[in-house]
Each structure stands twice: as structure tokens, then as C-alpha cells.
Amino acid sequence: MNRIAGIDEAGRGPAIGPMVIAGVLMREENIKKLLDIGVKDSKKLSSKKRERLVMPIKELAEAHHVEVIEACDIDWVRKSRNINLLEAEVMAKIINCLIPEVVQVGSVDINCERFRRRIVSGLGNDVKVISVHHAEDIYPAVAAASIIAKTTRDRLVGMLRERYGDFGSGYPNDKKTRQFIADQYAINPEMPPIIRRSWKTVFKITGIEMKSNLQKTLTG
Questions:
Q1: Selection from 79, 93, 81 nearest residue 121 by Cα
Q2: Cys-Cys crosslink for 49: which of 45, 55, 58, 196, Cβ 3.0 to 4.6 Å?
């Protein structure tokens, strides 16, 4: 039986906080058991349900691996590359750690085949990589990875709120998030490292001076 890895991310879009990418390695015969315990796309589950599923998923899995990409690292990468390339590189790192025969991932690129090739270029082993849109709705292993990624990020965001205060969801369309960014910029233009200073939302909130400060930060 094949060993199948599902990989998914959480926190690609927020203006605040890290992005988390998780991989879950499953034996093919255990895939159906994920469905039996209620695994589905993390966005379709409550936070309490996601938390309850984490340990059963890990018990069914052969292995799992989580990578956390901090906001400042995302800013640094975006100086010369786009976030799709970053995700492909991190996913390749996870695959090299888990060593599956088959990998299922959700493509973050509009071109699924291009994203697949980018992942394959970073692999050290001969692995079949399947890259499709909405993979978490198609492949239970990817849904399981989405749950681990989401719960991990939620815990990290909770810790950040304790340290920096309530910044809302962290997403650009959240008024509380936008107000937090504006307030932090007013206090200190450098702002806390949890804010993704390369995000257009941050540019719009802080004004043209922020672009100059960001460039100095990224090239300094």
C-alpha cells in the first residue's frame, strides 16, 4: 500500500501573524478512517471540532510535519519572489521530511501544473505529486493537514494576542485589524514584527511613507 501525504496551509491571506503549512503522512488503508472520524476541510468545522480531531488524526497518521513561516520572513521573501514560490519550497521541505510515495496538495497557483512542477523541483526523491484546486474537499489527507495547520495557527495567534493585544482576525477586511495596524504605526512606524509590512492593506493604511520604510527594512 502507498504512503500518502496530504499538505495544506493556513494563514496565507492575513495581514497579521504567521502562515502555517502542515503535512500528514497516511497509509492508504487508513485514509477512509479519516472520514469515519469526521475529517473534512478545516473551514467547514468549528474551532472546537478541529481541536477534538487533532489527536485522532495524529494517531491515525504515520507521521506529521508542521512549518511556521513568520510575518517578517514572508516580507523578506516577497522582496524577490512571490508567496506561491515560498509555499512550493516549504511544501517540498515537508515532503522530503515525510518521504511519501504520493503527495496530494491544494494548488495556490491558478496554474496547478506549474505549482506541481515548482514543488517537484525541490524534491530529493521520486514522488508522485498531485496538485489540484480545493484539494481539501477531494482528499481526506489534505483535509487532515488543513486541520493541523489551522489549529496550530490559531494557537499561535492566541499567543500573539496575549502579547500584543486584540488585533481581530488579522485579515485585511476586519475593521479591528485595520485599526490595530493604524494604531501601531502611529506609535512606531517600524510596527511589531507580527504585521506583514509587504501587504497592500498595510500600505493603504499607513500611507506612502510606509513604502519607503519597508524598502529600507527589506534592503538594509
A1: 93
A2: 45
* pLDDT tens profile 160-194: 999 999 999 999 999 999 999 999 999 998 899 99
* The three grid cell numbers given for residue 99, joined into one nine-digit string: 518521504
> Which string of DSSP letters, residue by residue, matches 106-140?
E--SSSHHHHHHHHHTT-SS--EEEEETTGGGT-H
Task: For 90-121, write each residue's pLDDT tens digit.
Answer: 999 999 999 999 999 999 999 999 999 999 99
* CATH of the domain spanning 166-219, picked from 3.10.20.90, 1.20.120.530, 1.10.10.460, 3.40.109.10: 1.10.10.460
Q: Is the pTM of this model over 0.70?
A: yes
Give the CATH H-level superfamily of domain 3-161.
Ribonuclease H-like superfamily/Ribonuclease H (3.30.420.10)
Q: How far apart are CA 53 and CA 212, in angstroms?
A: 45
3-state secondary structure (DSSP) of residue 188: coil
Three-state DSSP state, 189: coil
Ranges of each domain in the chain = 3-161, 166-219
